[in-house]
Fold this protein.
Amino acid sequence: MEEGPLTRHVRIQFRGPWVGLAVLVGLLVAMLGATNALAAPTIGPSGSAFYTPPSPLPSGAPGTLVWYRPTTVSLGPAAPAVDAWDVLYLSTDVDGNTFPVTGTVIVPTAAYSGGGTRPVIDYAYGTQGLAQRCAPSLQLAAGTEYDASATLASLEKGYAVVATDYRGYTTGSKPTYVSAADEGDAVLDVDRAAAQIPGSGVSLSAKTFIWGYSQGGGAATYAGESQPSYAPEINLTGVAAGGVPADLISVLNFSNNSVDSAFVMYSVLGLLNANPFIAPGAVLNSQGLAYAATLENDCALQDVGPPNSDQDIDSFLINPIETLLANPTFSQLVASNDINASTPPVPVPYFQYSGEYDEFVPLTQQVALKQAECSLGVTDDYHLYPSDHLITDPAAVPDVLTWIGNLLAGQPAPSTCNLNEPLPAGARTAPEFGDLTVPLNDWALGGSMTLKKLGLSLAVPSTASITALADITSGQFSGTATIPPITQTMKILGIPLRTTVALTLTGPLSGNVSLNTTTGVLSLSGTSSANVTIQSAGIGPLTIPLGCRTKSPVPLSLSISQPVGQLIGAKFTASGTTTFPQLTGCGIIGPILSLLVSGSGNPYTLTISEPPAIPF
């Protein structure tokens, strides 16, 4: 192919020794002379003016902090006290050109109790959206960041968190979505910038973990692979990445015409924004240009499901997507963002994770990434969660932090490279069309009900389970629960009476579910009821069969409202009170039992928890 602008975008070129030399020269220039152009970072302007870079842009090495300002972040009532800053810093694009990017630095105010320098979590957020208001720094401040679980949980551990907004959220710019070099470099450079904030306590010598999910999983992996040549001064200790879009062509084909088809257009626009030598009008037709203008005003949650789902990208392109991908220029551009066996290995332990029912990022190419990293000698600890793309994000947070904690404690990094099992039966290998649904297959059902008069708590057995489907599009929730009999000892007139109680739902679980696309709040409400039967009662070795039961079902209601960004682990809790009816069929002890257990105001708590991930 004739040499032209695209040849600069082949990934191996900017990953090679020349880039390492260029970065070294840049650092030396910054130390020896270029600092005269930017002697020290300054406090940036207030309000939205912070996101308008100075003109001309100051010179400096990648990661140079241009300005910063104190800020607040809203992570919910459980969040620890923190100091936080917005930052605007320099980073590089696919061609090595300098551009400004914003981000956030958050540090707990309490001294780190783990010994040594406070570790740093360099978090790469998942897909945010194309509008400037979608920038993670703005959503963290507003309390609307749906992907904040890892940030919250890391701060609770006492770690510092640094996070890039990625390129394209400064005033007048556009996001370069899925442009791996732009994203990976911005991830590494925010760590450099954070260390320049006076009094932040963030150090490049601190043990640093890069972590991200979905778009952020790709950015985190790319940053990890680039770190030895691009930012060797960062003390990289581990990389964790979930839902990684490693094979962009596979992701585009999988998502087209599906529930997340809007992200196909995101990807096309991101690559065009990253590569201005291709004019949008040369790729998009008039309908596509109009659709792009609409999406550029949205944040990500607004674009999942109708009216943006099940869209065929071909209707927005001058030429069909197959023709576009067959074009050597565009196909090479897309492929340059892939992560595979031809790219450098992650140089540190790698925790990789996926959702078994991922409807956004094809699971097969995520497994192929694990195999590629293992073939390169990477210590890849891959885990498969029994959930979809959305729920896997918070579900994995406790496991990732356990992995990080073990590495900090000096334990050897685990690996699943010796495991090569087929995908579990039922794992999603095809796109999801129509409604956006979240499956809850055999989730653990827990909780208890307290009989107020007796002060007796009846615990749901550990083997209880629920299987349900939450249809985000239609707003309907339905499912069934399996609750084994409960054996409990209660005292009647001071005599310990061992009872076995069965709860049988009178019908399927049903209710409403919604995901607020602005606030990220997940709400679930519904009602059900259960017939309660005391199957037997006994004292010591003596057990008497009974047919004692409630005259009417016990009413149960379920009400959950939880910001997705505050979920740590996939566990939902609901509580309330219920009325325990009179008993019948209990024989001569019936009146006594009814007197002791029936009545209103009996509190109960129900929990729904995802089963554990499997090493894969």
